[in-house]
Design brief:
Keywords: Calcium, Disulfide bond, Heme, Hydrogen peroxide, Iron, Metal-binding, Oxidoreductase, Peroxidase, Secreted, Signal. The chain is mainly alpha-helical. 47% of the residues lie in helices and 2% in strands.
Length: 326
């Protein structure tokens, strides 16, 4: 059978082939594999599934919180579980940086539960970084999100510094140009950045992150801005006050977040930035119209993110506890 010349293939097929080859090269180079624990911890998948299912049923905010925890871990020097480390008298860890203080306890708890169960089953075998990567994917699916393959074999970092989190994690108040630059520095395109921003279709934002701007940002729907002001009226006295990122389907992973933005129903300044910057508007409109395309691109971007800055071999360790180095 004659080979089909690339010029005769549709653009989508060519793109898929390029992505497949790129991922294959990345997997080979990183020494990760889908069945990394097949022999060393055969019940890995069963234990993970049971743990996250029980936790999500008990606390429905776990999935969105874990997705955010994963992003904060990976975006800062790679997917290495560094965000899970606790501070010591000699070091202030990432999780104690001001930007990370709002990371939800349920997300940390589900990782601790999975790690505890896996240590009983197969001690000193499964990394906290791998646990976080798989938990994020599986919890995302429980919310109706897309499936993507998680390759395993990451090692855990021995270093975690709050100072890095303050300077290197994107804040919702940053200009869109700055956010685009931060993603580009890590090898992500503008379209991948917009796709990943779709994670705001679930979860919460704390009032302190946007309340100061409600009267000044003309991109808010006026009635929505008024409702946010009422919901956040007590936030100076109660900094834990928060609102849903997507008021339409807050617990379902879908494309409603993108549909909300043209209507002025974005919560954060960065949400509005996506629909005011000419570089990002086309992708917002694309994902608002086509949920399947959003899911496809989000899954690809999440898989790419899961490879970012990983540690393998002697570059890391398998922590016995996720909150402390060995």
């Amino acid at each position: 059978m004659a080979a089909v010349p690339p010029s005769s293939l549709p653009h989508s097929a060519v793109a898929l082939i390029v992505l497949t080859l790129a991922f294959a090269a990345l997997v080979c180079e990183s020494k990760l594999s889908v069945d990394y624990y097949a022999k060393s911890c055969p019940r890995f998948n069963d234990i993970m599934q049971q743990t996250i299912t029980n936790k999500q049923i008990t606390s429905s905010t776990t999935a969105a919180g874990t997705l955010r925890l994963f992003f904060h871990d990976c975006f800062l020097d790679g997917c290495d579980g560094s965000v899970l480390l606790s501070s010591t008298p000699f070091n202030s860890a990432e999780r104690d940086a001001e930007i990370n203080l709002s990371l939800p306890g349920d997300a940390f708890d589900v990782i601790v539960r999975a790690k505890t169960a896996l240590e009983l089953e197969c001690p000193n075998t499964v990394s906290c970084a791998d646990i976080l990567a798989v938990a994020t994917r599986d919890l995302l699916i429980m919310l109706g999100g897309p499936h993507y393959t998680v390759y395993l074999g990451r090692k855990d970092s021995r270093i975690s510094k709050s100072s890095l989190a303050e300077s290197d994690l994107p804040r919702p108040t940053l200009p869109m140009s700055r956010i685009i630059d931060m993603f580009a520095k890590r090898g992500f395109t503008i379209q991948e950045m917009v796709a990943l921003s779709g994670a705001h279709t679930v979860g919460l934002s704390h009032c302190k992150e946007f309340s100061f701007n409600l009267k000044n940002d003309t991109q808010y729907n006026p009635r929505f801005a008024q409702a946010l002001q009422q919901a956040c009226a007590g936030y100076p006295q109660n900094p834990t006050l928060s609102v849903f990122n997507d008021i339409m389907t807050p617990s379902k992973f879908d494309n409603l977040y993108f549909q909300n933005l043209p209507k002025g129903l974005g919560v954060l300044e960065s949400d509005h930035g996506l629909y005011s910057d000419p570089r990002t508007i086309p992708f917002v409109e694309l994902y608002a119209k086509d949920q399947n395309k959003f899911f496809q691109d989000f899954a690809i971007a999440m898989q790419k993110l899961s490879f970012y800055g990983i540690k393998t071999g002697r570059g890391g360790e398998i922590r016995r506890r996720c909150d402390a180095v060995n």
